Amino acid sequence: MSPSPSPSPSPSPSPSSSVEAPGHEAQPTARRLRRLRSHLTPTAPPSPPPGGADRLEMLACARAAKLEVDTARLCEFMRGRHRGVQEQVFAYFNSRPDLQTPVEISKDEHRELCMRQLLGLVREAGIRPFRYVSEDPEKYFAIMEAAGSVDMSLGIKMGVQYSLWGGSVINLGTKRHRDKYFDQIDSMEYPGCFAMTELHHGSNVQGLQTTATFDLITDQFVIDTPNDGAIKWWIGNAAVHGKFATVFAKLMLPTHDARGLADMGVHAFIVPIRDMETHKTLPGIEIHDCGHKIGLNGVDNGALRFRSVRIPRENLLNRFGDVSRDGKYMSSLPTINKRFAATLGELVGGRVGLAYSSVGVLKIAVTIATRYSLLRQQFGPPKKPEVSILDYQSQQHKLMPMLASTYAFHFATLYLVEKYSEMKKSHDDQLVGDVHALSAGLKAYVTSYTAKSLSICREACGGHGYAAVNRFGSLRNDHDIFQTFEGDNTVLLQQVAGDLLKQYKEKFRGGTLAVTWNYLRESMNTYLSQPNPVIARWESEEHLRDPKFQLDAFRYRTSRLLQSVAARLQKHTKTLGSFGAWNRCLNHLLTLAESHIESVILAKFIEAVERYFHFL
């Protein structure tokens, strides 16, 4: 199925197709696609195949006026300048049916197949995503979307290898790390892990308990897991394939006073976990398999425990903080909080990728459900042909807003990727903060919407939607965790609300607003002094359909929510304290964050529609 919601882009391989013998090539798949095209745009009744066997006819049905769409131009506009590399991914897997994921596959088989898929893409197809992680993030995310449409486990495994493990090395390290590791990460010679999450700490990264204590005598760091709660958990690539891990731990330096050790905050360290030749677990390291999961079973998640594991001082990823040979700490950033913020700011690419990938999942599901609804005929007027179920208002109500939202999310996440690419080049502090909040909001909003939509798409296809081959089950299971990793959605929306409140305060102190929040300047000065635009202005159809009015209404809502929650927080803080006041207003804050993100999505959708008409 296509990774795009546009009516007829080139199809990607179906990950759930049964693996066929190489000699059969893709003939059955091609035959099915030809039939599907003939059903969707029939020009004449299809001729029966020789002998009349295996015939699937298009019955006459009530048809609405045909909508003419320049699908080639729409596809070009939607998929942009990186369409070519996506076609390369699809072409490679279409040529290798042995690498397509069958419907029935065990966990262990799926893991090995997923590794072969990634190795094949990199070494045989010659597609090297790692170089684009920092040089051209838009191209990297386009490759990830295509890989995820083949098998979502493949997209996530690619993300673990290049965005997380590789990204941490090049973004948190310095030239010595890039020179030593880049080529081997790129070629998959060094498969690795991103060991941040612990059993007792996920979202609260500053609460991590793993320690990295500097040994002044040996010039080494000693990595330790002090208790069971500090075991690194859910670590992708750890259970089977990883040879290295970027381990996040508290950097502990010896002192010459009664304290004994000074906590310098969470830092990242490169830790080898398996022997490069034998692949055996290295001394002091325990690796456990997290086992079978609800979805993404092609990714080998594991748990890591460290018992006095020694690594060279040079394995500290030292972009934001370093330790000298004599044990002195050096950093251009003066506080633990500033170093921590800088570290997390460099890791925001994973969150950007998840928002973008979630839209890719939604594209697939909506495409399948819409095409099925065009084909499926059920009931109709007495003594007349049955009608397509997409002609029913109820089915349209399920799918058409979802289809429109998919387009809107596509353009909103493209905007996010563009801002992220700009941030990587400029390193502008204001842009870093803007991308951090925007990625948090879009990731939370889009993944939640997609999770709900997958169930609706399955329902819209009736009993046939329950067949595993039609992918809704695997898509739903694989995507479900998107709401949790790279930041729990509820936590992320609170970050957005917190940033809005910060901008609100800055506004009244005479400060400047970040790019995405610029509309609040006008809205706080103008909207709040005017009546509600929804109830106080014209009610004609022309006005209600006017995009400017619609955007005004969305922004008015956000401004009202922001003003009211700020007043409530101020009131409750006097009696409950800041934490208690925040908790008392939590649902209000979440609604504010969602309202703001909806305003951003709508604004980007309106801009894209206008660009499309100029494009034509």
Order of helices and strands: HHHHHHHHEEEEEEEEEEEHHHHHHHHHHH
Counting copies of identical and different chains, the oligomeric state is single chain
Poorly predicted runs of 5 or more residues: 1-26, 39-62
Q: Let me know the average pLDDT.
A: 86
Termini gap: 26 Å
Secondary structural class: alpha+beta
Please tell me how large the radius of gyration is.
26 Å
Biggest sheet statistics = 6 strands, mixed
Number of strands: 11
Residue fraction in strands:
5-15%
Total of DSSP H or I helical runs spanning 4+ residues: 19
Q: Percentage of helical residues?
A: 40-55%
Describe the global form: globular
Family: Belongs to the acyl-CoA oxidase family.
Organism: Eucalyptus globulus (Tasmanian blue gum)
GO molecular function, one term: oxidoreductase activity
Cofactor: FAD
